[in-house]
Design goal:
The protein is about 30% helix and about 25% strand. The chain contains 7 helices and 12 strands. The strands form 3 sheets. Strands 1, 4, 5, 6, 7, 10, 11 and 12 form an 8-stranded mixed sheet that branches. A two-stranded antiparallel ribbon has the order 2-3. The chain has a two-stranded antiparallel ribbon with strand order 8-9. The protein binds cytidine-5'-monophosphate (C5P). It catalyses: 4-CDP-2-C-methyl-D-erythritol 2-phosphate = 2-C-methyl-D-erythritol 2,4-cyclic diphosphate + CMP; 2-C-methyl-D-erythritol 4-phosphate + CTP + H(+) = 4-CDP-2-C-methyl-D-erythritol + diphosphate.
Length: about 220
Amino acid sequence: TQVTALIVAAGSGTRMGGETPKQYRPLAGKALLAHACEALLSHPRITAVRVVIGGGQEELARKALGSLDVGELIIGGRERADSVRAGLAAIDDGIVLVHDAARPFCPPEVVDRLLDALESADGAVPVLAVADTLAKGDRELRGTVNRNQMLRVQTPQAFHIEDLRFAYDEAGSGAPTDESSVMQHAGLKVVTVAGDEDLHKLTTARDWERAEMMLQARMI
Ligand code: C5P
């Protein structure tokens, strides 16, 4: 089967500050997006890597990607779900691994676990347990949530492409942000596999510094 990694990079990526969307900014000398692509391009079971970018980001993306083999760039949309839909319309049937551009490291074992799990499920996602207490509230606590029932869901998320296309059709407009929710709403079975701390999404300036330090120390 064809296994396509679909890297969604069409966000404005400016929560961390700065003018250039973070996915195109250099992390230890190479764009964040390029790190994410390389991690998946090097996996022996992945047959193609494609990238979804925002309209107007072509030049930034080409510069960030250099000679990486990601085929033609796909133009995404306003919401993440629009970007995933655009990606699904542009790729061949088989298996898709939807992945955030903001996660520069992807241990190959996670991809293996996902692909193995898909043999008996419609979808598979990497998850981690919650270490901190989870609570509701703002400046005052309004109850805690049983963290034993809670999971942190990461990407890549693996699906049979026809199932995910069907799930998005069922969801119509206003689909939830994450693919695994769209699948569940459509009544499809999504299983979990062990995630990895290295899959951490770079969101804050602190995340960025830590990732640079790890790359420089060649810890990753
Ligand atoms: O904003 P957030 O960190 O949740 O975005 C996760 C991923 O989805 C990022 O890689 C971002 O570029 C992508 N995205 C997208 N299209 C959008 C919004 C987000 O491809 N409209």
